[in-house]
Every structure is written in structure tokens, then in C-alpha cells.
Amino acid sequence: MSDKKILIVDYDSRNLEDMSELFSGQNLEIITATDGEMAYEMYKSEKPDLLLIEAMLPKLHGFDLTQKIFKETKGGVPVVIVTGLYKGRQYKNEAIRSFGAAAYFEKPIDTDKLVESVLKLLHDEMDFDEELPDPDEVIKLLEEEGE
After folding, report:
1. What is the rounded CA–CA span in Å between residue 57 and residue 94?
2. Greatest extent of the chain over all pairs of C-alpha atoms, in Å
3. Taking Cα atoms as reference points, which of 8, 5, 3 lies closest to residue 80?
4. Nearest-CA neighbor of 127 among 76, 57, 92?
5. How many CB atoms sit inside 10 A of residue 117's CB?
6. Rounded to whole angstroms, how far apart are CA atoms 127 and 57?
7. Whole-angstrom Cα distance, residue 42 to residue 48?
8. Which tens digit of pLDDT belongs to each residue from 60-115?
């Protein structure tokens, strides 16, 4: 999984350090941004496989950034939202259903669950990268087996 890249976005430099440290032993490339606009520019230039973002961001709100990336990638790049402000089922549901977030975590975060979720999303994303066999070839093989 060494070729996977995640973009971590938070306005607080300490949170950025803590989040980066969480994933340091996971053989991932970590890039960071401190506001929504910077994150969007880095997303376009760096092409991360996953974004981990604080909901409350300067210049471009985390929910708006999530929605923008979800629409552009048709859900192909997972966005995990972390927040200390928007707590409760209504925010989680809105983030996932309306904005396209792949996962939603409230602070204080269960770091084990966060790491597990991110790694699972990266793994699931890898599964989709595999090329599917040609349907005509599959049908031909099945017909040959039936003979």
C-alpha cells in the first residue's frame, strides 16, 4: 500500500501533527493543508487517494469541500470528516447523505477506529482499481465449461 497518499486537512497545526503521526507507520504518503482552499488545490495537484478533513475550515468549509470532491470524482476519492463542533446524528447523516462523506468521526476520536476506517477505505478503493474481465470472455469461458 506504499503508493497510497492521504491528504490531512486541519486549521490547527497540532491536530495536523497528531493525525499525521497516527498514519506514520502505515506506509502511506501523508500531505497536509491548513484551509479548505489550499486543500482543494492540493487535491487537484497531488491526486490523493483519500482525504481526512476537519469539518470547520477557513476559506472553504469542510462540508463544501467534501461535496465538491464527491461530485468531481463521483465518490471515487473517499473523504473522511473529523469534527469537534458538529456533533450528533443529524450532522453525520447530512455529511454522508448530502455531501458524500465516506465516514464521519466526532472528537474526541477513537484513533483505532479512525485508522481502521481509513485503511479499509483505501483497501476498498484499491479493489475498484483492479480491471474487470471482459464480459464476453467470461461468457465464452462459462460456455466452454458447460460443454
Report:
1. 17
2. 65
3. 8
4. 76
5. 18
6. 31
7. 8
8. 999 999 999 999 999 999 999 999 999 999 999 999 999 999 999 999 999 999 99
CA distance 93 to 104: 9
Place of cell 484499491: 126
Residue with cell 477557513: 58
27's grid cell: 506506509
How much is the pTM? 0.82
Q: Please give the Cα distance from 24 to 96 (Å, whole number).
A: 27
Whether the Cβ atoms of residue 5 and residue 47 lie closer than 8 Å to each other: yes
Q: Of 33, 26, 22, whose CA–CA distance to 4 is shortest?
A: 26
Dump strand ranges (E) for the chain: 5-9, 29-33, 50-54, 79-83, 103-106
Please give the residue that has the higher pLDDT: either 133 or 45: 45
Instruction: List domains and CATH numbers for the chain.
Output: 5-146 (3.40.50.2300)
- Asked if 55 and 15 touch (Cβ cutoff 8 Å), the reply is no
